[in-house]
Amino acid sequence: DVxxxxxxxxxVQPGGSLTLSCSTAGYAWYIYCMAWFRQAPGKxxxxxxxxxxxxxxxxxxxxxxxxxxxxxxxxxxLYLQMNSLKPExxxxxxxxAGLGRGTSPSLLEERYNYWGRGTQVTVS
Length: 124
Description:
Elements: E1 3-7, E2 11-12, E3 18-25, E4 33-39, E5 46-51, E6 57-59, E7 67-72, E8 77-82, E9 91-98, E10 114-115, E11 119-123
């Protein structure tokens, strides 16, 4: 069974930083496209950052220059480094992995078939 577990969410002040982690188990995750999504209250879930199977990355425009997605293949962990946080970054952040749906990075939900339960980030 594939499992994704997020951690690292917290409450921070504007301008602060956080690093989210997503641990994986159950499959050779490093060959798949992975991403971070977020959902704010009353809004649809949106893609934030993605890393493809071979390391290429893509970001939502609103987080470019502030967020960095990376993965540690040896530890099977996906990271999201978030700097210069803003109140509008407040959301539940989800880790996602795509199996058999392409290897390039993507912010489209339909590319992902495995999801974590989320971790809360509050900026205020």
